[in-house]
């Protein structure tokens, strides 16, 4: 991508975006974009924006865990349970359900786990709450909505309703990811969007996604006023019928308003960051359209035997013991019910007509092994049904070399024992031809939406679900019987964990 186009967001041509899509996707290994990641290299992960470290704000309500424990999966919460909540606590429960801390694995090198999966647990997606002229930042570690207080005043969102603004910050992910940070951050925006919509559905709150350029620009002004950092184009979600969370009060504990040793990383001049932001900014060109209610839960999914506190606690991408990399699975049968549930979650389209149209171009396939008596091999997903392909008893073993992390003395990949490997694929050229340059971002949002559904459904059945962006596209493509034009763009590996250990419960 040439520099002048990349620095002027509106000026990217379809060819620029096509080259970028190749560079951060199938071309990443050939073009030297994929480096070994040094986990000790600092990032800005979990660092609040500079003006969101103030001493005042609104503490979040307690008792979300009890509320969710009383909510059978797949939900929603009983109307009486929601009616019994203090109206001003409802929003706190909603945000904690969507984004809250869940557990700490004491021996694990990665950060604490939350309701959502995140690349290397870096959580580049940050949430802001705008109500009238008040803007607050969700700080999960302070368990509070912290006042955003820039000296020049914070930008505001039009109207006096409630908006949640989601934006991803590139410097939170390892710099060695290069331009692949684009796909990871945009997919994570989709993951967080679905998590928010699921939480809203559970609590009976109406959510609407405002994806148009005007709403994006307004949200971006708010996010930028929170301090230095290079952000993706934000998403704005309007929540209906909620009380004001304020007034703000002094928050307990230290305010963290002083400088942080990682602050200089927020202002990186890395050209890959500039390119990613320019491609993400294509959302500024989206037209205004109807905003139907954004529903996150599947329609008429099978009933489970668990509750929502357990589902969020269970949600995991799997792991290895201390000092070892990757994730470990063991061979185990998975029921047809579990498969049906994952299909129901994948079948719920994302909100917004254009976003749903782009998502409709994506093909979902799944390789199965030991699932509900079905043949081992690759199956095509059509709605909630499967069309079996040829039987391939060794499909998982054949896929394993396509996963970025290979088994070695210090690493395992659970791929060979996976029960299901879900692959999203699409003809990117045709997508960009038909929908224009903004389609690359819409594609990632739709992927995140779908993948988070798979992760939640897997958790409801006690399964690990590992989302993966780092895999060898050219290895996976023929094994899934995809046409040359059709690129695998995301993978989710599901199965039964081989390893677990006692964990610290961080739920509130
Ligand atoms: C968008 C996205 C991309 C990811 N890519 C990879 C990947 O390429 N390889 C991998 O092993 N894990 C990948 N992960 C999984 C994360 O590493 C995992 O979610 C993180 O370690 C946190 O663990 P938890 O999900 O168990 O909380 C990805 C997760 C997300 C959301």
Summarize, please.
The protein is built from 15 helices and 20 strands. With 508 residues, it is α+β, with helices and mostly antiparallel strands.
Number of DSSP strand runs: 20
Strand order of the largest sheet: 8-9-7-4-5-6-1-10
Report how far the terminal alpha carbons are from each other: 46 Å
Secondary-structure-based class equals alpha+beta
CATH class of the largest domain: Alpha Beta
Kindly state the percentage of residues in helix.
25-40%
Q: What name does CATH use for the topology of the largest domain?
A: NADH Oxidase
Residue stretches low in confidence (pLDDT < 50, at least 5 long) are 1-8
> What compounds are bound to the protein?
flavin mononucleotide
Radius of gyration (CA) equals 21 Å
> What number of domains?
2
Please outline the major beta sheet. 8 strands, antiparallel
GO molecular function: oxidoreductase activity
InterPro entries: Nitroreductase-like
Protein name: Nitroreductase domain-containing protein
Region (Disordered): 243-306
Layout of strands and helices, then pairs:
Layout: H1 3-7, H2 14-24, E1 56-59, H3 64-69, H4 79-83, H5 87-99, E2 101-104, E3 113-114, E4 125-131, E5 134-139, E6 144-147, E7 162-168, H6 180-202, E8 207-210, H7 213-224, E9 235-239, E10 249-250, H8 271-280, H9 308-314, E11 325-326, E12 329-330, H10 336-347, H11 353-360, E13 363-368, E14 377-382, E15 385-391, H12 395-399, E16 411-412, E17 420-426, H13 428-435, H14 439-460, E18 464-468, H15 473-479, E19 487-497, E20 504-505
Parallel strand pairs: 11-16
Antiparallel strand pairs: 1-6, 1-10, 2-3, 2-20, 4-5, 4-7, 5-6, 7-9, 8-9, 12-19, 13-14, 13-17, 14-15, 17-19, 18-19
Helix pairs in contact: 2-13, 5-6, 6-14, 9-14, 10-14, 11-14
This protein binds flavin mononucleotide.
Residues 110, 113, 117-121, 184, 187-188, 191, 316-317, 404-405, 466-470 line the site of flavin mononucleotide (FMN).
């Amino acid at each position: 991508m040439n520099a002048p186009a990349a620095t002027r967001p509106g000026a990217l041509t379809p060819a620029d975006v096509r080259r970028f899509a190749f560079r951060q996707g199938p071309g990443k290994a050939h073009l030297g974009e994929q480096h070994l990641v040094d986990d000790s290299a600092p990032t800005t992960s979990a660092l609040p924006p500079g003006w969101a470290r103030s001493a005042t704000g609104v503490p979040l309500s307690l008792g979300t865990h009890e509320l969710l424990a009383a909510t059978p999966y797949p939900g929603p919460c009983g109307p009486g349970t929601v009616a019994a909540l203090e109206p001003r606590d409802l929003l706190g429960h909603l945000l904690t359900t969507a984004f809250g801390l869940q557990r700490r694995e004491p021996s694990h090198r990665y950060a604490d786990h939350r309701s959502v999966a995140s690349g290397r647990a870096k959580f580049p997606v940050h949430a802001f709450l705008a109500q009238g002229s008040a803007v607050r930042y969700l700080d999960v570690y302070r368990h509070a909505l912290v006042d955003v207080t820039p000296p020049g005043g914070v930008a505001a969102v039009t109207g006096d309703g409630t908006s949640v603004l989601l934006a991803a910050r590139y410097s939170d992910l390892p710099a060695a990811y290069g331009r692949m940070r684009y796909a990871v951050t945009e997919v994570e925006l989709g993951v967080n969007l679905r998590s928010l919509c699921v939480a809203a559905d559970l609590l009976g709150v109406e959510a609407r996604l405002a994806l148009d350029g005007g709403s994006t620009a307004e949200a971006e002004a708010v996010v930028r006023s929170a301090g230095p950092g290079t952000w993706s184009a934000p998403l704005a979600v309007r929540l209906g019928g909620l009380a004001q969370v304020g007034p703000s009060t002094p928050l307990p504990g230290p305010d963290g308003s002083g400088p942080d040793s990682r602050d200089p990383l927020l202002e990186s001049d890395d050209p890959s960051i500039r390119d990613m932001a320019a491609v993400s900014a294509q959302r500024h060109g989206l037209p205004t359209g109807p905003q139907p209610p954004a529903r996150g839960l599947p329609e008429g999914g099978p009933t489970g035997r668990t509750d929502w506190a357990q589902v969020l606690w269970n949600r995991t991408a799997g792991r290895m013991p201390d000092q070892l990399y990757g994730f470990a699975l063991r061979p185990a049968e998975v029921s047809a019910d579990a498969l049906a549930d994952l299909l129901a979650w994948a079948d719920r389209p994302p909100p917004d007509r254009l976003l749903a149209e782009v998502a409709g171009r994506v093909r979902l396939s799944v390789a199965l092994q030991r699932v509900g008596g079905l043949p081992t091999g690759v199956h095509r997903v059509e709605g909630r049904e499967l069309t079996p392909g040829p039987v391939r008893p060794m499909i998982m073993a054949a896929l394993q070399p396509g996963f970025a992390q290979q088994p070695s003395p210090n690493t395992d990949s659970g791929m060979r024992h996976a029960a299901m490997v879900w692959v999203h694929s699409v003809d990117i050229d045709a997508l960009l031809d038909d929908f224009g340059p903004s389609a690359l971002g819409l594609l990632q949002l739709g992927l995140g939406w779908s993948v988070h559904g798979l992760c939640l459904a897997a958790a409801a059945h006690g399964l690990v679900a590992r989302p993966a962006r780092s895999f060898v596209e050219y290895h996976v493509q023929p094994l899934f019987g995809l046409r040359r034009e059709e690129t695998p763009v995301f993978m989710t590996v599901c199965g039964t964990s081989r390893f677990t250990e006692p964990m610290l419960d961080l739920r509130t």
